Amino acid sequence: xxxxxxxxxxxxxxxxxxxxxxxxxxxxxxxxxxxxxxxxxxxxxxxxxxxxxxxxxxxxxxxxxxxxxxxxxxxxxxxxxxxxxxxxxxxxxxxxxxxxxxxxxxxxxxxxxxxxxxxx
Length: 120
What we know:
Layout: H1 3-22, E1 33-40, E2 46-53, H2 57-83, E3 90-95, H3 98-119
Parallel strand pairs: 2-3
Antiparallel strand pairs: 1-2
Helix pairs in contact: 1-2
């Protein structure tokens, strides 16, 4: 991926996170949603936005459905304004369970650490 696409995808990730906090849609609970990563095409015409939730993949899927149907146009226009893009990329939101998996791994590591401490 080119430097410009990398930089733009990171800028888009940061701005989408801020925009999600401002949305009023009850299906999109921004306090529990995380933008995991953004993949942008080389020509900056299309982007995939991976969304994860602390509440699990079901919550992320509900939010993604709301984002893809109702809020996609608003988010795209806000990105164009905030990042001064001539043409904002067409976005597709995708549910991701990486945050849930990370929390599960963290809990397992903590339980192993506790067991080792109890043995000593």
